[in-house]
Amino acid sequence: MLTLTNRRVLRVERDASGDFSVPAATMSSALRLPPTELRNRLGRGEVKSQVEIGQGEHLGTFRLTLRCGGRLWNATVSSDGTVIDEVFTFDRERLANWRRRHGTSGKGP
């Protein structure tokens, strides 16, 4: 499914069993990471994902969350995989923890 959001084309797929899949190009764009850096972080198990099912007035939608270090991407997705809305932020607490672990006060993850 291709969706133009914030002037970017995003693609989120959903298989026959209802599971979502975020292609690497979309993940790289969403997390604002170069593809090689994303691959490295995926290989180290640093990218986490979560799917929440909409309830009540949000029934029929899902919230997809990707986390990598202090980077956080939330997308509201319809049942057919259409990205309705997205938000990218830095999780300040996670970013501070990452910086403490890696001994840096410069650029974050």
TrEMBL record:
<keyword id="KW-0614">Plasmid</keyword>
<dbReference type="InterPro" id="IPR045389">
    <property type="entry name" value="DUF6522"/>
</dbReference>
<protein>
    <submittedName>
        <fullName>DUF6522 family protein</fullName>
    </submittedName>
</protein>
<dbReference type="Pfam" id="PF20132">
    <property type="entry name" value="DUF6522"/>
</dbReference>
